[in-house]
Design goal:
Layout (H helix, E strand, L loop, with lengths): L1 E6 L2 E5 L5 H14 L1 H22 L6 H16 L19
Antiparallel strand pairs: 1-2
Length: about 100
């Protein structure tokens, strides 16, 4: 396990080397339910419900910081597939509202 972020003096960890099954689960959910559902599933699986809830319920979590956390998790899960991406960009997209 390795640290991903810290909130209120608590360090939240993610697996250092997620299984290939995580990448396949992500791709399956992306195909069946769309990219947002795939990102949600990936975050809950990697952070665990407690870590996910800590992010979700943090009152001052900045969107830019959240995007960095999501990108780091995505890179861990899909990192070996990077060369397969059409443009080499992250699959995570943030809609500007």
């Amino acid at each position: 396990m390795e640290p991903l972020f810290e909130l209120n003096d608590e360090v939240y960890l993610i697996p250092q080397k997620p299984s290939a099954g995580m990448a396949l689960g992500y791709l399956e959910r992306q195909t069946e339910m769309g990219p947002d559902a795939a990102v949600h599933w990936m975050m809950v699986e990697m952070l665990g419900p407690e870590g996910y809830d800590a992010l979700k319920n943090h009152p001052t979590l900045d969107r830019e910081i959240l995007d960095k956390i999501i990108s780091k998790v995505e890179k861990k899960v899909l990192g070996l597939m990077e060369g397969k991406r059409p443009s080499g960009k992250s699959r995570h997209r943030v809609s500007k509202r």
